Fold these 3 entries.
Entry 1:
Amino acid sequence: MTQAPDSVITDEMRAAIGVEGPPAVMEVEKTNCRMYARSVGHTDPIFYDEAAAKARGYRGIVAPPGFLGTPIFRPGGSGAVPGELGGRTFSVPYKRILNGGTDYEYFPDPPDGDAICAGDTITARSKISGFEEATGSLGPMLITTRETTYTNQHGKVVAKMYGTLIQY
Amino acid sequence: MGQVYFEDVNEGDEIPQLKKNCSTQQLVLWAAGSGDFYQIHYDKDFAQSTGLKGLIVHGALKNAFLGQLLHDWVGEQGQIRRFGCSYRGMDEPKQDILCRGVVKKKYSDGGKHYVELDVWTEKPDGKKTSPGTAIVTLPGKN
C-alpha cells in the first residue's frame, strides 16, 4: 500500500522474489566444451584435449569460462537457458526486452566446490533476486535480477550466475 | 607468456589486451556453442527488420571474450573466481573489439591471493560496450 501508483511491480511479482523455479539439468560434454571454446577463440589445450587437461590436474576437458553446460533439448520445449532470458515472466506494460548483463561466480576449490569438467551433470536452480524500476535513455524500465545456482552430480555448488534483464 | 605471480601485480596495472574481430562465421559458431540462436546475430534481413543497422555481436560472446582475457592472464596456476559485464553498447562483426582489464585491488585471505579488476570491451573509438568486473586468484612466489 506504499506502492507508487505508476509502479509496474505487482504484489504477485514481489511474492515471487526468492522463490526457486523448477531445476534444469545441464550436461557438460566434451564436444560442447570444445565447440564453446572454439567459438570464443580459446587456445588453451585444456578446453580441447583430455590428456592435456588431466596433465594439469583436471578430471577431464575443462568447461571454458562462461560455459555451464548445455540444457537438454526437448522438441516443443522453450530451449531457454536457465537464468538468462528463461524462467518466469510477468505481465508488464513493456514490449521490449534486453539482456542487461551477466556475472559468473566460480567455486573451484575442493572439498566444497570443484572445477566444471566434461562428464559433469549440473543442476541449475534459478530465482528472482529483485525488481527495480528506473528511467534511462530508453525511457522507463523494469530491471529484474536473477540468480542461478549450479550444483554438480556430487552435490557441490560449482558456480552461480547473476543475470540482469531489462524490459522497457 | 609465463606465469604471472601475485607479487608481480600492482593496483592500476593494465593486463595484456586481447583483440577480437568477429567474422559472421564466428557469430554462427557462437550461436551453436552457446545455444543462443536469436537471428539478429546471423540473419541480416531479420536484424534490419527489428530496426538494427545490421548484425550485432552477442553480448554473451563479449563476456566470454573477457573470460578468455582473464583465463590467459592468470595462467596455469591462477583461477577465475568471478567475472562478468553489463551489455551497454552494440558491436558489429568485422570491427575490432578490444578486451582490456585493469587491476583495482589486491589482497590475501585464507592463504589465497586475490586480485580484483575492472574489465571491459571497447570499440575502435574507445567507447566501452561491455564494462564489468572480475576477481581472480594468482599464485604467490613462496
Note: The beta strands of chain A are 24-27, 70-71, 97-106, 121-136, 139-151, 157-167.
Entry 2:
Amino acid sequence: MAGSGRDERAWVRRAQAGSQSDFEALFRAHWGPAYRAAFLVVRDAAAAEDIAQEAFLAAVRALDRFDRGRPFGPWLHRIVVNRAIDWARARALRPEAEAVDTPAPARPERDEELLRELGRLSPEHRAVIVLRYLLEYTPGEIAELLELPRGTVNSRLRRGLDALKEQLQ
Amino acid sequence: MKFEAPDERAAEDRAWTVVRRAYAEREPVAWPRRHARPLVAGALVAAAVAAVLSPPGRSVVHSLRKAVGVQGAQTELFSLPAPGRLLVSGSGGTWIVNRDGSRRRLGSYRDAGFSPHGLFVAATKPSELVAVDPKGKVRWTLPRRSPRFPAWTGSFTDTRIAYLAGGKLHVVAGDGTGDRVLDRATPVAPAWRPGPGFVVAYARGATAIVRDVVSGQVLLRRSSPMRPRKLAWSSDGKLLLVFKPYGTRVYDARGKVVAQDDPSDATFDRDAAFVPGSHGVLFVRAAGDGSNVFRYADGRTIFRGTGDFNQLAFSPDGRWLLVAWPTANQWVFVRQHPRKIVGAARISGQFGGFPRIEGWCCAG
C-alpha cells in the first residue's frame, strides 16, 4: 500500500536529499500498483515489469525536479499507463510479437475470466478501467492523468464495462 | 478489484536492483542551491512589487535581471562562440547574426528559416512567403494567406520549402514554383527528415504524421492526447522527436517509442532538442521558480537558473548549446567539454524584443 500523503512527501523530500532508505520506501509503496496496472493493460508480465521499471527510472531522473507539494502516485501511474497503452498499441500492429504464455497466479475462476475478457478490450478502454477499479482514481482524476476530456473517460468506462458485461454473460 | 500480477515479488526485487543502482548513481542537487531558490523567489516578488509601486521601477527590473543572469555576461553579443550564423525573429523583425557579432536586419518578417546551406532565408509576412538573401534582398515572393513556419531542405540543385497556410501544409520548390497543398495541418513548424529524398513531419490535430512528399505516402502516423508543439529529427534522420510540454515522445522509423519524458505534476518542459550527431536529447524543464536543461539519458543537469529558459539551439559543429533566457534577458552559450559558459546580456535591446531562434547554420 502507498503511504499517507504526509509519509510520501517526507519520503520524497528525504530521497531528494540522498536517503536511499526513503527512496526504497517510495519504491516499495508504489511498485505493486504500478506493476499490476501495467500488467492489466499489456497482459504480458515481462513487458509490464519493463514498463514499471522504466517509470521508476524516470522518477529517479526527475527526482530533483519533483514538486513535493504534489502526490507521487498519480504522476507515476500516468507514466505507467501511457507507456502501457503505447506498448499494447505497438503490439497490436505486430501480431508476430505475441506475448508468450505467462504463469498465472492462483485465483478464483471468475476473476480469471474477468481478466481474460479485460484483455480483449482496446488498450485505451483497459487503461481507464484499470485506473478506475484497480487504482481507484475518480473519472476526473483519470481525465487529468491521461489528458483526456472527462466525457471521453466516462464514455470509455461505460463502453468498456458494457463490453465486459456482454462478454461475461 | 483485487488482483495480483504474475511473479510480483520477484519482479519487484529485480526492478529494485536496477532502480537502486540508478538512484545511487544520480547526482543530487547541492543543498545550498536548492535552498537558495526561495530566497531568489522572494527577491523576484519584492522587486516586482517595487517595479509597480515606485517611479524608478524600470531600474529595479534591470537590477533584478542582472541578479538572475549569468555573472560576468558580456554587455552585448560581441561574437558567437562557434562558427556559423544565427537567424532570429521577433517583434523587432528577422535578423542574421554573424560569427563576429555583426548583425543585419532582414526585414519585418514573422518567422524564417535558413536554406540548407545558409545561402538564402525563407520568411513569412502576413500575406506572402518570401525568399531573401543574407543581405535582405528579396529574390521571390509567393502570395498566400497567413503563411507560417517555412522550413527549407534539399541539396544545392534541388530544394523544397514546406510551410503552413490557411490550415494546410504546402510544399513549394526552392525557386518559388510548383506550390501545392499536401494535407490539412495544425500550426506546428513542419520538420524535414535529414538525408536523401523529401520526407516531412507535420502535425494534424494531436497526430504527428511523416509523409514522403514525392510519392505522397504516409510513412508514420502517431496520435496522442495533446497537440505537439515541436517536431525535430535526429541528425541521421532515424528518430523523430514529438515535443509536448507534458509528455514528449521519440519514435524510431517504425513508430516505436524509444524515449519519452513525462514531467512530474506542476512541472513541464519548455523545449527539447537532439544533440547533433547523436540520439541524445536535451530538455528544458520549468519547475517552481527556476528552469534547468538536462540530458534525458541520465538526467544530468547541464545548466540551471532562475526564471524561464524558453529555447535551446545547438551550434552547427554541435559543441555549443545556446540557452535562451528571457527572464535574465540573456543568451547563454554552454560548452560541455571542456566546460565553459559565456553569457550575452541585453538581448531584447539589440533585437527590438527578445527574439526566437530560428536556426544556427552552416559552419565552414
Note: Chain B touches chain A through 49 residues (CB under 8 Å).
Entry 3:
Amino acid sequence: MRLAHRLIRSYVLYTLGFFAFVFVMWRIELKTGPGMWIGYVFLFVPIAVYAVIGLLSRTSDLVEYYVAGRRVPSFFNGMATAADWLSAASFIGLAGSLYASGYDGLAYLMGWTGGYCLVAFLLAPYVRKLARYTIADFLGTRFSSNLVRALAVLATILCSFVYLVAQIQGVGLIAMRFIGVDFAIGIFCGLAGILVCSFLGGMRAVTWTQVAQYIILISAMLIPVALIAHRDGIGWLPQFSYGHLMQRVGTLERTVRDAPAERDVRDEYRRRAAAWQAKLDALPQSYADEKARLAATLADLRRRNGPLRDIDSLERRLASFPRDAEAARIAWTQQRDDLLARAAPPVPMHEPFPAHAPDTDPDAARRIAMRNFLSLLLCLSLGTASLPHILTRYNTTTSVASARRSVGWTLFFVALFYLTVPVLAVLMKYEILAHLVGRPFDDLPRWVMQWRRIEPYLISVADVRGDGIVRWGDIRMQPDMVVLAAPEIAGLPYVVSGLVAAGALAAALSTADGLLLTISNVLSHDVYYHMVDPKASSQRRVTISKILLLGVALLASWVASLNAGNILFLVGAAFSLAASSLFPVLVLGVFWKRTTRLGAVAGMVAGLAVCVYYIVATYPFFTQLTGFEGRRWFGIEPISSGVFGVPAGFLAAIFVSLVDRRPDRYTIALVDYIRHP
Amino acid sequence: MAAPHHPTPLPEPPPVSDAMARAHRRYWRFNLALIAVLMTIGFAVSFVMPLLAPRLGDMRFAGFHLPFYVGAQGAILVYVALVVVYIVLMQRADRALQAALDADETARPGRPR
C-alpha cells in the first residue's frame, strides 16, 4: 500500500497548493483590481502543472503505456474516470440546459449517472477480468475473431472522434472568451495542452493528470456554488436545501407568466413571427422583393451620404443575405421558429413534460415529450455504459474487485458534480428573475454591459415593449453562459471566473486526453499489431502508438478549427451510436454463453446500421445534405436513435447465434473464466 | 478469417472438481439474482417515476416538487446506494468463492497451487 500512501500525500499537497494559489490570486486582485491577466494565469498555470505531471509519468513500457501498469488504486481510478467522463458539455452545457428547459434536462443527469449502475453490474468487472488493452481487444478475444475486432474498432472511432473534436472546440471557445485570442490559436493552445498530458506517458500520464484535473474541476463547481448560495442565504451546502429557493423561483416564474407587461412582450414576438410567416408564404416573390428593398435602401443611403455605420451594417446584411429563395426559406423558417419559441409562455422549472406548441393537441404533445424523455434517458444510460474511453479505464485497476470498487468511486465523484449542477441552474434563474427582471434599462448591472459589448450574441437584453424596464421576455441568454458568466452574474470576484475557466478547461482536456488515447490505442493495438504486423516488438508498438496519437490529435484539431457547428449534435448521438453498436455484444458476450462469432457480427452491424440510418434519415443536417428524409418512428428525436438500434442489435445477435453452430468448448471455458473473479 | 492470436496466452482454466463447479454455479446465480434485483429498483426509479411525474406534481419534499427532486437528487443517490450494495455483497460472494477454492485445495493436497 506504499503507492496509495504516496499518491494520497502528493494529491493532498497538490490540492492545498491549488487552494493557496487561488487565495493568493484573490489577495492580488483585491490590491490591484480585476484584469485580463487573471484569465491568462488561470489557463496557463494549470496547463504547466499538467505538463509537469505528464513529463514525470513518461514511459515506453507497453503495459504502462496502455493500461498504466494495471496498478492504479480504485479510489484514484474512480477520480480519473470521473474526470475522463465530465466533458466540456457536462461542465458548461448541462447547467444551462437545466436553466433553459427545466425538468426535461434531468434526463441527462439521470442517464449519465444511472449508466454507471450498468457499468458496475454488467461490464467493468468482466472487462477487467479478461485484462485486455482496449474494448475492441476484449470483444476480439471473447469471440476469437478479427472481424468482430475490426467492427469494434470502427464503432470506437466513430463515437470517440466526434466527441474528441467537440472537446477541442470547447478548449478553443474557453481560450477565446477568457484570454481573448483567436479561435484557431485557442485550438492550438488546447492541442498543446492535450499532448503534454498524453504523448510521453500514454495511459499512465493521462491517469495522473486526470486525477489532478478532477480536483480542479470539482473545486471550480463546488466553490462558486457554495459562495453564491451562502450569499443568497441558503447556507454553504445548498445541495440539499435549495428546495426553498426553488419555491421562491416558482413564485417569480408564475408572476412572469401572468404579468400583463410580459404578455405584451410575447405578443410582440408573435407579431414579428407572423411578419416572417407572411414573407415565407409569399416566396419566391418576397425573396426578390426583400433583396431589392435592401439594395435600394443602401443605394439611397449612399446617395444621401448617410452615416457610415448604417451603410456598413446594411452592406453586411446584404452580403449575408440568403443566396436563393430555397436558402431564404430555411433561414426565415429558423427566424420564425426562434421568435415563436420566445413568444411561448415560460415553463416553470419543476414542471415535467410541458406542452410546448399551443396550436396542437396538448395531450399528444405531452405524450411525445414524455416518450422522448424516457428514450433519451435510456440511450444516455446505455451509451454511458458502452463508451470505450470509460470502459478501458477499468483495465488499469489491480483486480476484479478493485474494478468494481472503482466504478463505485467513479459514480461517487460524478454524483458530487451532478448533484451540484441543478443547484447552480436554480441559483442563476433566481438571480436573473429577482435581480435583473424589473430593473430599469438605465441601470443595467455591470456584467450585462460587459458581456453585451464583447459578445452580443451570447447575452442580449432588448427593450421590446419600449417602456424602459427589463422584462423576462427581453432577456436572451445563450445557455452556455449560465456557467461561464455565473460568478459575474452573482457579483463574485474575478478570480472565481478564472477558477471556473480553469475548471472548464480541465474538464475538456481530461476528456480529450482519454478519447485521444482510446482512438490511438485501438489503431495501434488492434489494427496495427493484431491485423498488420503481429511480430512487432513492444518497443515498436509503443512508438507506433505515439505517432498515431500525434496524427489523430492533429487531424482532430484541424477538423475542430473548421468550426462546423453541426457536429455538436453528433456528440449527443455518440451515446446512441456507442449503445447500439457495442452494448448488445458486450453484455451478451458475458451473460449468454451461446452467443457466437457470427451472432456478434450480426448484432454490431444491425445495431449500427439501424442507428445510423435513423440519424441520417431524420436529422435536418443530413436530410438537407442528402435530400432524403425518412419518417420519424413514434415521434422519437434523432438523438435517441439508440432506442431502435439497441433492440435491433440484441435481436440480430440472438437470432443469428441461435441459427449458428454452438460455440466450442474453448469458448465456453473462456466465458466461465471471464465470469469468475 | 485469420485465426486470432494471443500475445499473452490466456490461462487455461484448470479442470475443476464437482465441489468447485457447484461453488462457481452458486456464485454466478447469486450474481445474476443480485443484478436482477438492483436493476429492477434502478429501473423503477429511472423510468416509472417520470411516468408518474405529471400526477405527483403537487407533492412536496423539503420544499421541492417531488418529481423534480427525484430526478435531480433522489435518483442519483439511489444509484450510488445500488452500486455500493452491489460492491459489498459481491465482495462477500468473492470471499465465499475463495473459501470454497481453499477448501477444495486442502481436500486434494496433491494439486499444485
Note: Chain B touches chain A through 52 residues (CB under 8 Å).
